[in-house]
Amino acid sequence: MSTTREPRREGSSPRFGSKVYTFQTIDSTNNCARVLAGCWAEEGTVVIAEEQTAGKGRLGRTWLATPGENLTFSIILRPDLPSEEMNLLPLFVAVGIAAAVESVISMKVQCKWPNDLLLNGKKFAGVLMEGAVSNNAVDFVVVGIGINVNQTLFPPELAGRATSLRLATGAPIDRDTLFRAILLSLETEYDALSASGFHQVLPRWLSYAPIVGRQVTIAQGGSVLHGTVKGISKHGGLILETGGEQRVVFAGDVTILNMEPYAARN
Ligand code: BTN
């Protein structure tokens, strides 16, 4: 089942969500949004589904979400950005979601590089970005966002690492309010960064992510890097001091050692 909502609902953002394709069930909102983007759907077009039968996570994983309890949606962006700055986009998306969630639930949110979002040290949201590049410039990007909103039961393999807004706050959250807040926040961040340069997201993101100076491990496929985080590079990579040298890492699963201070943001 598919519908097109137009014009946008009261209170939603001017461009992001001005066109929303809503599905009861779909394989993956990212897959659908990629097809739409290839057919010249305009920037800000959103695909949202109650249920994904093949929801995709980062690094080839599956994204599991109980139907009807969460938010699973994708937004099409067409940023005017050289391809080497593409890795700044996950940071902008994480900041936009963090600001919106904080405004709705009045709790501190942490960002975990590159684009996970945590409450009390547990993940409640993830972002999967898929894009197309031509002539060294970004053609389009599909930003896929999965947020655990009202889900209270998680599979055993996620227990202890996953949470939801409902679990963190103890109260059910209105998904529509949250959805509109996120679209508005993302659009506000996006417009500001498009005007000022996407590198301006770095201090914003770091204010949600006290990771500099921390010892981490970064799992990349079969290998694991150990080191100390020295900062975020101008292109969004993690600057890691490891084995007496600095290297910039653009992908992987970060585990912060001695985790406890990461749970609190000033
Ligand atoms: C991750 O943390 O691994 C990223 C998860 C991204 C999940 C969202 S749900 C909506 C969109 N459609 C997908 O198939 N994946 C993303």
Question: How would you concisely characterize the structure shown here?
Answer:
Helices cover 23% and strands 32% of the residues. It has helices at residues 29-38, 89-105, 165-169, 175-196, 201-208, and strands at residues 2-5, 20-26, 46-52, 71-77, 110-112, 116-119, 122-134, 137-147, 215-220, 223-232, 238-242, 245-249, 253-256.
What do we call the CATH homologous superfamily of the largest domain?
Bira Bifunctional Protein, Domain 2
Cofactors, ions and other ligands in the entry: biotin
Terminal CA distance reads 45 Å
Characterize the overall form.
Answer: globular
Beta-strand share of residues: 25-35%
CATH class type of the largest domain: Alpha Beta
How many domain regions? 2
Q: Residue ranges: pLDDT <50 for 5 or more in a row?
A: 1-13, 261-266
Main sheet strand line-up: 1-2-3-4-8-7-6-5
Q: What is the number of helices?
A: 5
Q: Average pLDDT across residues? A: 91
Question: Would you give an account of this structure?
Answer:
With 266 residues, the protein is an alpha+beta fold. It has two domains: 2-208, Bira Bifunctional Protein, Domain 2 (BirA Bifunctional Protein, domain 2), CATH 3.30.930; 215-256, SH3 type barrels. Helices cover 23% and strands 32% of the residues. It is built from five helices and 13 strands. The protein has an eight-stranded mixed beta sheet with strand order 1-2-3-4-8-7-6-5, sandwiched between helices. It has a five-stranded antiparallel beta sheet with strand order 12-11-10-9-13, with no helix packed on it. Strand 6 (116-119) and strand 7 form a beta hairpin. The radius of gyration is 18 Å and the shape is globular.
